[in-house]
Amino acid sequence: MKALRKIIKYELQNILRSKWILIYTLFFFLLTDSLFRFGGSSGKVVLSLMNVILLIIPLVSVVFGVMYLYNSREYIELMLSQPLKRRTLFLGLYIGLTLPLTLGFLIGSGLPFLVHGVDIVAHQAIVFMLLLSGIFLTIIFVALAFLISTVHEDRVKGLGTAIISWLLFAIIYDGLILMITYMFIDYPLEKPVIALTLLNPIDLARILIMLKLDIAALMGYTGAVFEKFFAGSLGLFISFLSLILWSTLPIWIGSRMFERKDF
Amino acid sequence: MIQISGLKKQFGKLEVLKGIDLTLNTGNVTAIVGHNGSGKTTLIKAILGLVGADSGKIFVNDTRVNGDVRYKAEIGYMPQIARFPENLTVAEIITLIKDLREEESATDDFLYDAFDLAKEADKPLRTLSGGTRQKVSAVIAFLFQPKILILDEPTAGLDPLSSSILQDKILEERRNGKTIILTSHIMSEIEALADELVYLQDGEIFYNGHLKSMLRNTGEKKLERAIARLIEGAAA
Questions:
Q1: Which helix (H) or strand (E) holds A129?
Q2: B44, B183 Cβ separation under 8 angstroms
Q3: Which of A9, A225, B200, B232 is a plausible cystine mate for A190, CB 3.0–4.6 Å?
Q4: 3-class state of residue B213 by DSSP
Q5: What is the domain count for chain B?
């Protein structure tokens, strides 16, 4: 644990000084702040912000994570020639990258809410869910990035896989669900669709935020089924369990592979 | 001392090491030479535990290399390419390694002073030239007075003055009874530093023996010529 803390400490020093993390934070700050200035109410801001967050956080986390690990190749070799366990280094690098990205998002998006204030008390829960979703997505997609770059020796392949997996989760997946729903329109599909939704962290995050926004009614019958499931305590429990599994499984598999990897 | 027996390693279909048997003695500088892709770096990385062996055994000072990382405390490693976290400073990367090793014994700051790195101490590592990064890498390798030094192309990219400082340091450590492994493409450097020569060809040991006796046996004065003679002799 002591070694892990040390690795994280120096990782933080390294990454917090990087201009990219500053740009990332500023991006969220300017975006949220201008949404407030142009949009008005905190409910509208959350809705617009949600759409950006669900796309940008996974993309930046997975691409930045992959590139970061490839660029650290020589540093990793140097560290592994020290009396240091591989798992400690892997987790140290992971936490050391996830923390600054999470902080960047939290500060960038959270500060404008503090400055402009949240209109009604009920909205506080939505803002909380929005920020929580952002944190989960960062953790999950940096973990995916670490898994991808441990699997692929070649950085071009790694970057390609990262972008494809982002496309899959952020865009293609919804299209597939829509296609399946359309193809099997005569059958009761609510349960399979809920199950499919649980498999995609971006969809999960979207639903958790939208349910708090109370616009599920706009989604018609399916929306009602969704609301019944996800707003219930069992649904909420399963959703968070799924997010937690998404946050832990890839990094656990990645760490196992990292332990056996040849450098 | 390092003992290697029957070491094999394959990357996909490519056999990189085809059964290496090698003993590297204390107080010796062993130069590992061979053309590009002959398996030099893979051999070094196997000793460091960076590459896992498919079969065979490696013992570093009687500790078997298989998962337990503690033996690495006795090794100082200078990689071929020195790249560090971009935004850390020279002082910070050295403190980081010191922090991780937590050794009680006094550190060897000779190279740090000799290379005059105090001047660069507060500069971020990304702003340093390749040669300066190489110096930082050398300082880290020698810092803990390790019993074993593994130096992969140590003087590549160093200016002549720094290069000779490093060479003198290597010879001094040899006199102190260290086990030193060295790879280099500069034959004159190997002649100046090495006691033993291991010539790798396509993942096999082609020659392993005293450097001086090899020069004597082939009747050549220059190492390049002597190695060429060896290869010709084997081909004939």
A1: helix A121-151
A2: yes
A3: A225
A4: helix
A5: 1
* H or E element at residue A20: helix A19-39
**How far is A70 from chain B, CA to nearest CA, in Å?**
12
Q: Is residue B124 exposed (0-12), middle (13-18) or buried (19+ Cβ within 10 Å)? A: middle
| CATH number of the domain within which B111 lies | 3.40.50.300
CA B61 to chain centre: 17
How far apart CA A192 and CA A180 sit, in angstroms, is 10
| Structural element, H or E, at residue B21 | strand B14-24
C-alpha Rg value of chain B to the nearest Å:
18
Locate the chain B residue with the closest alpha carbon to A18. B87
Per-residue pLDDT reduced to its tens digit, A135-147: 999 999 999 999 9
Distance of CA B148 to the CA centre of its chain: 9
What is the C-alpha to C-alpha distance for residues B191 and B169, in angstroms, rounded to an integer?
Answer: 16
* Contact in structure between A105 and A135 (CB atoms under 8 Å): yes
Residues 92-151 of B with CB under 8 A from A: 92, 96-97, 99-101, 124, 137, 140, 150
- CB count in 10 Å sphere of residue A241: 11
A interface test, pick of B100, B101, B122 with most A CB neighbours within 10 Å:
B100
Reported ipTM: 0.90
**Cross-strand partners of B208:** B198
Condensed to tens digits (0 to 9), the pLDDT of residues A170-209 reads: 989 888 888 888 888 888 777 788 888 888 999 888 888 8
- Measured in residues, chain A has a length of 263
Answer yes or no: do B50 and A73 touch at CB < 8 A.
Answer: no
Residue-wise pLDDT tens digits, A204-263 = 888 888 877 766 555 555 566 677 777 778 888 888 899 999 999 999 999 999 999 998
Run of H or E including B183: strand B179-183
Nearest CA-CA distance, residue B221 and chain A, Å: 37
